[in-house]
Write a structure and sequence with these properties.
The chain is built from 19 helices and 14 strands. It is an alpha+beta fold.
Length: about 525
C-alpha cells in the first residue's frame, strides 16, 4: 500500500527472533536498481554505483558450499548457474542504498508518499520518512541478493553479535552462525530467481498504470516466507528436527520476535511508526505462517505451483484458506473514474492504488484501542481503490476511497466504525448530515463524507463543498468491478541507458535550435 517508491522492493528487511535464544537475525532482499547519482550532487563521492557492491574479501569457500548444499537440499531445487557471493562493508552499502533509494524516490516523490501516508493517519506530520528508512534499512540489514546483477552479499561483522551465552554456544556446537543463517536465506532467493524469475514479480512502480501495492505485498510474502522457512528448516535440521513437527511454529516465532523487538528500545525498528514496521515485517512473519500452511496443505508441489498462481491479496496471506481452500476468495478490482477534469488543474493526483486488508487493519488500530470489534472490521474486505490529490495552493490533500465488502453486514460495520473515526481524525469536525446511509462533516480541511450502498462504502475527505456531490456522483456512476482471477507477471524493469538520455538531450537541443531558426 502507498509505497510506490518501492520501499519494500528496493530493500526488504526483517528482525526475526529465533526460538533458540531469541537472537535477532537480520537479512534483506535488494531489488532491481539503475545506476544513479549520489544523494548530494554537490558532494564528491569516489564510490561509483558499479563499484559500491564489489566485495573487499571472499567468504570461505567451505562455508559457501555448505550453505548452498543446505539451501538446495532443504528447498528441493538445484542451482542452474553459479551465484557471485561476497562480503560487504556496511558503510559502503549505505552509500549504495542511498544512491538507489533517492534515485528511485527523489524528494518530490517522497513528499507525495508522505502526504499520502499522513492523509491516512499512518505517520506523524513532522516525520522524515526518507531519512528514517535509509537509517533503518542500513541498521538492520544483514545481507541481500540482487536479482538484476545476480550477486549476493553478506554484511561484514554479522557474526560479531551475540557471541556469548548458552544460545550462541549451542549454535556454535551445531556449526551454525548468524552469517550462515543469513546466507542460506539469500541463497534461497537466488534459487527462486533462477527457477521463477524474481524480476517479473509484481512490483510497485510509478511507470505502471495499474497500481496494486496490496498484491505486491502478497507476492513478497510468498518468496520471503519461503526463504525464511528454508533458513529455519536448515537450522532446525542441524538439531535433528523440523519446523513441520512443531505446532503453531509460525505464531510462536512471531510472538518471540515481537517480544525481542520490544526489549530493544534503542533499535530504530522498535521506534518506527506501526505502518512502516508492520509493512516491512509482513512478508517475513505473516509470509512464514502462510507458507507453512501452504506446504502442509500440498507439500513442495503446492509451493512450486504458487509461483505460477501467485497470491493476489494480503487477505489471502492473512487467511491462507482463502488462497488454497476449496473455494478461493479472490479480491475484487475496483476501477474508479479519473477525476482530473472534475477537480481542476489546481489539484494533482498523487496516487491511484489499493489499501488492502492488512493496511486497513493498521489504519483502524491507529485510531482505536484494540478490541474484538476493531480487529474484525477489516476481515470482511473484498477490494478497494483510492485516489489522492494534492492542492498546494489551498494546502489541502483530497482522498477519494471506495471499498467493497463480502456482505452488507461487513460494509455496515466499516461504515459505522469509520464514521466514529472521522471525529478522531479531524478534531474540529462538525456533523452536517447523519443518517443510516450517509454521514457528512464540515472541517477546517473542507468537507468529509462517508456513504454506504449495499456492499460498497465511499469515503471522501477534504473535498471543497462545491465538489463533494460531483465527486461522489461520478464515482458511484462510473466505477467498474471485476474479480482478480490471476496475478499477471510483469516485464523486467528497464535499465536506464545513459547513452539514450544523452541522445534525447541532443535531440531536444536540436529541436529547440530549429524552432529558434524558424522564429527568426
Amino acid at each position: 500500500m502507498f509505497l510506490r517508491c518501492r520501499l519494500v522492493l528496493v530493500a526488504v528487511l526483517a528482525g526475526l527472533a529465533l526460538l533458540l535464544g531469541g537472537t535477532m537475525y537480520r537479512y534483506s532482499l535488494a531489488g532491481e536498481n539503475d545506476e544513479s547519482p549520489a544523494k548530494d550532487e554537490g558532494k564528491k563521492d569516489d564510490t561509483t554505483a558499479d563499484e559500491s557492491t564489489q566485495p573487499e574479501e571472499e567468504l570461505p569457500q567451505a562455508e559457501i558450499d555448505e550453505c548452498k548444499k543446505g539451501a538446495q537440499k532443504t528447498r528441493k531445487l538445484e542451482f542452474k548457474t553459479d551465484v557471485k557471493i561476497g562480503l560487504q562493508d556496511r558503510e559502503t552499502l549505505k552509500k549504495k542504498m542511498e544512491q538507489d533509494f533517492f534515485e528511485e524516490t527523489p524528494p518530490e516523490r517522497m513528499d507525495e508518499v508522505q502526504k499520502t501516508l499522513r492523509k491516512f493517519g499512518l505517520i506523524p506530520k513532522d516525520f522524515d520518512l526518507g531519512k528514517f528508512l535509509v537509517d533503518l534499512l542500513t541498521e538492520q540489514i544483514g545481507g541481500f541478493y540482487d536479482p538484476e546483477s545476480k550477486e549476493l552479499y553478506i554484511m561484514k561483522g554479522s557474526d560479531k553479535e551475540d557471541e556469548s551465552g548458552t544460545e550462541a554456544a549451542m549454535l556454535k556446537m551445531l556449526g551454525v552462525s548468524n552469517r550462515k543463517i543469513v546466507l542460506v536465506h539469500e541463497l534461497t532467493h537466488s534459487l527462486q530467481d533462477q527457477h521463477y524469475d524474481l524480476l517479473t514479480m509484481p512490483r510497485s512502480d510509478p511507470d505502471i498504470e495499474d497500481h496494486n501495492d496490496d498484491t505486491v505485498s502478497a507476492v513478497q510474502a510468498l518468496f520471503e516466507g519461503e526463504a525464511t522457512y528454508v533458513m529455519y528448516e536448515w537450522m532446525y535440521g542441524k538439531m535433528g528436527t523440523s519446523l513441520d513437527s512443531i505446532p503453531d511454529i509460525g505464531k510462536e516465532m512471531e510472538k518471540g520476535m515481537r517480544d525481542e523487538m520490544g526489549n530493544k528500545t534503542g533499535d530504530l525498528m522498535s521506534k518506527a511508526p506501526a505502518f512502516i514496521r508492520e509493512s516491512l515485517l509482513f512478508p517475513y512473519i505473516k509470509g512464514l505462517i502462510w507458507f507453512i500452511g501452504l506446504k502442509k496443505h500440498g507439500g513442495w508441489e503446492a509451493v512450486n505451483k504458487a509461483y505460477a498462481d501467485l497470491p493476489a491479496s494480503t487477505e489471502q496471506i492473512l487467511h491462507p484458506k482463502k488462497y488454497y481452500g476449496e473455494e478461493r476468495d479472490n479480491p475484487t478490482i475496483l476501477t474508479t473514474p479519473k477525476l482530473d477534469e472534475l477537480v481542476g488543474t489546481d489539484w494533482k493526483e498523487l496516487d491511484d492504488n489499493v489499501v488492502g486488508q492488512f493496511a486497513l487493519d493498521i489504519v483502524m488500530h491507529e485510531f482505536f484501542e484494540t478490541s474484538a470489534r476493531i480487529r474484525n472490521v477489516a476481515k470482511g474486505w473484498d477490494g478497494d481503490n483510492y485516489r489522492i490529490f494534492d492542492n498546494p495552493k489551498a494546502g489541502r490533500v483530497l482522498l477519494v476511497w471506495l471499498t467493497t465488502w463480502d456482505t452488507e453486514k461487513d460494509a455496515g460495520q466499516f461504515f459505522e466504525v469509520y464514521g466514529e473515526l472521522i471525529p478522531k481524525k479531524y478534531k474540529d469536525a462538525k456533523s452536517a448530515k447523519s443518517d443510516e446511509k450517509l454521514k457528512v462533516w464540515m472541517t477546517l480541511e473542507d468537507m468529509v463524507s462517508i456513504e454506504i450502498r449495499g456492499t460498497d462504502v465511499l469515503v471522501v475527505e477534504s473535498a471543497p463543498e462545491g465538489l463533494l456531490d460531483k465527486i461522489t456522483s461520478l464515482v458511484w456512476e462510473k466505477t467498474t468491478k471485476e474479480e482478480m482471477k490471476e496475478v499477471k507477471r510483469m516485464p523486467p524493469p528497464k535499465k536506464k541507458d545513459k547513452k539514450d538520455d544523452t541522445k534525447k538531450e541532443d535531440d531536444t537541443k536540436t529541436e529547440n535550435d530549429n524552432d529558434e531558426e524558424e522564429e527568426e
